[in-house]
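Let's study my pick:
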Amino acid sequence: MDKRKAAYRPVYHPKEKVIQQASWLTSGIFYSCLLGALVTIPWYAWMKEQGNIANSYYDMSLTWFGILGLAATAGLPSVVAQQVEKYNAMSEYRVGQRLFIRCLQISLGLGILAAGAMFLLAPLLSNISGGGNDLTAIYRSMSLALVVFPVMRVLQGYFQGMQDMFSIGLSQLVYQGLRALYVLLSSFFLLQVVQSNFRTAVIQSVFAAAVGAIGSLVLLLLCWQKDQERWEIQGMRSLDKVETSIQIILWEAFLEVLPYVLLGGGLIVYKLIDQLTFIPTMTAHTNYSGDQLLNLYGLLRANPDRIAVIVIAAAGTLLLRYLPSLLERAAKQQKQEVVRFISIHLQRFVYVILPVVVWLIINVRPVYTLFYGANLLGSRILGIVLLVSFIAAFGMITALLLQSLDLVKPALYYWIAGLVLKGILQLPLIELLEVYGPQVATCLGLLLTSALSLRKIKRATKSNYQLAFRRVLLIALLVVFCGLITLGIKQLSYFWLSPDKRLQALLICLLTGVMNTGLYLYLTLKIRLADKLLGARAKRWRKNLRIK
């Protein structure tokens, strides 16, 4: 067999490559969010009465890390993944290799610039965030992570282009595992052993991102070193017929992935708006002290987000599992198949995510106690945040469906429209509703984005979704019925279990969770609704459970 033919890899549509890259990364988010939520339980407990303030500091630093990290990577991982595979398929291996090396150099430079900006601007960013001087050292502690993170991501993009998913998966595992381990060990030592200040523990918790990124980077470099033989062989086999400069290729690829990069940062911009407006607005219109406002911000953003973001990650993973099938049908212009796929997936999203959100809202008090201890205001805000997270997940689903239909620009415009509405309503709603205001503004902005996206999907596919609407209505009715039963069980459990004690709150969650899941699954299997959405899998479940 010809060696060059053996090295061939199939050509993918460039946009498909970008979305496949997003698919892998978003799937990894679920593990990250789940691990982060679990780590929060002991971490928050060790902070004691300063838990809300500590979590506010930590959350504020992660918001800026997300913004600057997005700017420092600048879409380069997607560019590398896309172009390396493209030129490998053309047997122009040297082009992909040179482009990868150039992207590594650019990412290192951008990382250094982002880290320098964070270090120098930390006092300013601390003040405009409402955290004061205490935040300065915390912000600066993430500077090293901003240097390493873009390089790590470009290396992941290279392995994505080489179809080496194992190396990416292992690097994600190392990144999140080392980060969580460092957070736990450093916080335990500082707070439980030497009884240090909680701010020092937060600094080390933020620095944990650098520890995880360095570990992941070392692993990726070792994998790359191990791959040097293939690198050299491909270099010798390269046709070397492409005369376009690397700079031109990079610029064209960057322009193509830019809308995807901006869409990927949509939700974090919502968080940034809250961070920049909540404490300053409340300071101007209320008599709350600085610590009281930081406590409120913890209840508003930092605490509930650790739980609610799991819903968003689960929704993304659910969609991206089926996305390659949609892309294949769209590429072949199989309109009816595309319409059917979009319809069935929107139904699957509601079928899986809605009962989870409703169960969480019903059990919001014991769930909040399980993570953060008893706090009535915190649990009420968590209920609102969970509702907003469902809308955010739905908005993300519709945006990705638009991307798969090659409608990325409308998807971007709709996200911008939602952000503009959020920005217009933010200050008046904070003045009117105080701690609830930012979430209401977010909810309205995301609703606008989702409504516009749904309308565009319907117009683009030119189809009637009445069947989907009827099924969604049926799912909603079943969820409400199961929710009412679950609510009754929860209220009965309060006679002998307290939702304000962690262990008893866990028992309440387990009891209601098992009952709600079992009843919902039984009903959807009994009326054959699950068959229409899950296919053969539902039939196997019915057979195993002996449901006729």
